[in-house]
Amino acid sequence: MQRTGETSPESVGINKVWYLKRINIFEGMDEDSVRQLEPYLQHRRYEPREMIFLPGDRGDKVYFLKEGVVKLARLSPSGKETTLALLERGEIFGEMSFLDGLPRETFAQAMERVLVCIARAQDFQRFVDGKPGLGLRISMSMGERVRDLEQQIENLVFRDVPGRLASTILRLAKRHGTVEHPQGEMIDLRLTHQEIANLIGATRESASINIGRLRSEGLIEIDRHRFVIRDRQGLEEMLDAF
User: Fold this and answer.
1) Cα 159 from chain centroid (whole Å)
2) 96 near 138, Cβ under 8 Å?
3) What is the CA radius of gyration of the chain?
4) 212-218 — which CB contacts under 8 Å span 24+ positions?
5) What is the C-alpha separation between 87 and 95, in angstroms, rounded?
6) What backbone torsions phi and psi does residue 228 show, to the nearest 5 degrees?
7) Greatest distance between any 2 Cα atoms in the chain
8) Spatial separation of the C-alpha atoms in residues 115 and 51, rounded to whole Å
9) Helix, strand counts (H, E) of the chain
10) Under 8 Å CB-to-CB from 154, ≥6 apart: which residues?
């Protein structure tokens, strides 16, 4: 796994404070407070499939996702990939670094073209120390991600592959939202069958078979690598069966 060259168009016509105000943990903060972080930030763009950080990298940076979708994943000793989270605009990631400073155990990869703000962990720590309540917001954000992981573990333990697939589709719809589609509700997130397999803890072949099963039962459709929910109630009933 290799990281391609990073690009860093430093603030070409980009208002950093405007973007920061749209990061979840900064919502409701006054502009003057947010602006205090601006001098410590760097903008970077990453192209689709480009690595943002890798296992073993120093945990000395915190990332704020301004545009696009980022995958957080882990590799087993045998090289099997497990997707831990798909992050969307407004989320913070790499935040464990400002808590423990240890090397990364996961990797972060751009799923599409993304734009992030990056702060050194020590600079961000000083900023947080001067903002009562911000540490709690970060803890709540991390707690939400832990709950998502607990849901994934529950799926792996208690559900078969069709149930895990149905649960994952509904969770993606809740987390990333849906848009109207002629056949139902479309999750505007492009995923290959291998990426879906990594999300549900299955082989690519098993994921493909079960995607086909849900399609044949009229529960979902696929539109250019995006899930379309045709029968939400039917998916929910699959979860009740386990």
Assistant:
1) 23
2) no
3) 19
4) 213/162, 214/162, 214/165, 214/166, 214/169
5) 13
6) -120, 120
7) 56
8) 13
9) 9, 12
10) none
Name the H helices within 21-160: 31-35, 97-100, 121-129, 134-158
**Matching residue, tokens 């969770």:** 171
Q: How far apart are CA 230 and CA 173, in angstroms?
A: 12
Indicate whether 7 pLDDT > 50: no
Length of the chain: 242
Which residues are CB-contacts of 205 (< 8 A; sequence separation ≥ 6)?
Answer: none
| Secondary structure letter of residue 103 according to DSSP | P
> Which DSSP letter does residue 102 get?
P
Q: Tokens 């993606």 label which residue?
A: 172
Interior CA angle at 234 toward 232 and 238, to 5°?
115
For residue 115 the two structure tokens come to 């734009």
pLDDT, tens only, 124-164: 989 999 988 898 888 888 888 888 888 888 888 889 999 99
10 Å CB burial of residue 147 (0-12, 13-18, 19+) is exposed
User: How confident is residue 30, by pLDDT bands cut at 50, 70 and 90?
Assistant: confident
CA-closest candidate to residue 148, choices 83, 232, 81 = 83
Question: Angle at which helices 193-200 and 204-216 pack, to 10 degrees?
Answer: 100
